[in-house]
Amino acid sequence: MKNTIRLAALALTLTAAAAFAQDKVSFATNWKAQAAHGGFYQAVADGTYKKFGLDVTLVQGGPQVNNRPLLPAGRIDFLMTGNLLHSFDNVKNSVPTVVVAAMFQKDPQALIAHPGQGYESFEKLKTAPLALIAKDGQFSWWQWLKVTHGFKDEVLKPYNYNLGPFLANPKAIQQGYSVAEPIYVENQGKFKPVVHLLADHGFSTYSTVIEARTDTVRDKPQLVQRFVDASILGWVNYLYGDRKAANAMMIKENPEMTEAEIEASVALMKQQGIVDSGEALRNGIGAMSAERIQDFYAQMVKAGLYKPGEVDLAKVATLQFVNKKVGMDVKTKLGGR
Q1: Is 238 helix (H, G, I), strand (E, B) or coil?
Q2: Do residues 296 and 205 make contact, with C-beta atoms less than 8 angstroms apart?
Q3: Which residue, among 252, 292, 313, has the nearest Cα to 104 in the 3D structure?
Q4: Spatial separation of the C-alpha atoms in residues 38 and 35, rounded to whole Å
Q5: What are phi and psi for residue 29, nearest 5 degrees?
Q6: Helices and strands (H, E) in the chain, number of each type
Q7: Are residues 203 and 298 in contact, defined by beta-carbon separation less than 8 angstroms?
Q8: Over 50: is that where the pLDDT of 145 sits?
Q9: What letter does residue 193 receive in the DSSP assignment?
Q10: Which residues make Cβ contacts (< 8 Å) with residue 298, sequence separation at least 6?
């Protein structure tokens, strides 16, 4: 009997110790701190990661920083990437990574235009005499626009992330991050641009996906689950709760941002349903489905970016960590809809 009590006490002690042990985790983003990363900073700032036994270090990306090679090299534990095109490329090139959650239901990639020029209809955008699109966009989603919506290469000119050429030409259209460029246009051009999300016209990729190494998923599934769950709660609390501490943390890391810009970006994320829409309304933020991944891949094959069967879609993402309605009760308590 005494031995049983001692063993039970030891088990409780070990359990308590494990509960307070903090696993060190590094998570790299793909750009400087901004509202589109807010949920992750929220989970650090409000202690959510710590409550899940995680000591998380956020590693910023930026114009001269490429964090993508760090994940397969084992120098970071998780990576935020833009959309599923990166994940398709990883599988195609036998890079041992896999998507474990998708924080954005909609890719914020958009086309923006001047108001009053007839571009309020998405179908009219292809008649613009000038389209300012960065080189990476020209070789990815622009190909989809050509095949699916009839856009033409003849109007292309490179977008160098300078709004000047767009602001100077009322007939021009240009690419934009739907929760950022419209704010910059309004600040610099003193008008609200017309914004068309590609996601609202069939570009069905998830965005702000979290990737992990395949060996991490295999060997440390509980660690992955804790990181995904805590990140989801971070996003719920960031969108619907008090985000002041997270905003302050992001401004400290990226002084180019202002509180006003961040709040305007959050408002656009909510308005456009970037994070909390579609499958996320049923299964919680981070939700994914195999059918949607298959649909996006089929569109990219049609656009000529991949060959049929070139990517093993079973290796692109795992659904074992999402679709569990995590945070939906918290969202209700916070008054989120």
Answers
A1: helix
A2: yes
A3: 292
A4: 5
A5: -100, 180
A6: 15, 10
A7: no
A8: yes
A9: P
A10: none
Give the pLDDT band of residue 164 (cuts 50, 70, 90).
Answer: very high
Report the distance separating Cα 88 and Cα 316, nearest Å.
Answer: 6
Q: Helices in the chain by DSSP H: which ranges?
A: 2-20, 38-45, 48-51, 84-92, 135-138, 141-149, 164-168, 181-189, 214-219, 221-240, 244-253, 259-272, 279-283, 290-302, 328-333
Measured CA to CA, the distance from residue 23 to residue 78 in angstroms comes to 13
The residue type found at 59 is V
Residue 149, classified by CB atoms within 10 Å of its CB into exposed (0-12), middle (13-18) or buried (19+), is: middle
What's residue 32's pLDDT?
95
pLDDT tens for residues 48-94? Answer: 999 999 999 999 998 888 999 999 999 999 999 999 999 999 999 99
Residue with structure tokens 């993402």? 317
Both structure tokens of 122: 């998405």
| Amino acid, res. 297 | Y
Domains of the chain: 2-106+205-333 (3.40.190.10), 109-201 (3.40.190.10)
Phi/psi for 23 (5° steps) reads -75, 125
Contact predicate 197/110, CB 8 Å:
yes
37 three-class SS: helix
Q: Is 163 helix (H, G, I), strand (E, B) or coil?
A: coil
d(CA 288, CA 282): 11
Q: Count Cβ neighbours within 10 Å for each residue of 189-202 and write b for 16 or more, e otherwise.
A: eeeebbbbbbbebe
Compute the C-alpha angle 44/49/52, nearest 5°.
165
Other residues' Cβ atoms within 10 Å of the Cβ of residue 71: 24
CA distances from 251 to 35, 178, 218, 254, 270 (A): 10, 20, 36, 5, 21
Euclidean distance between CA atoms 35 and 39, whole angstroms: 8
pLDDT grade for 19, boundaries at 50, 70 and 90: low
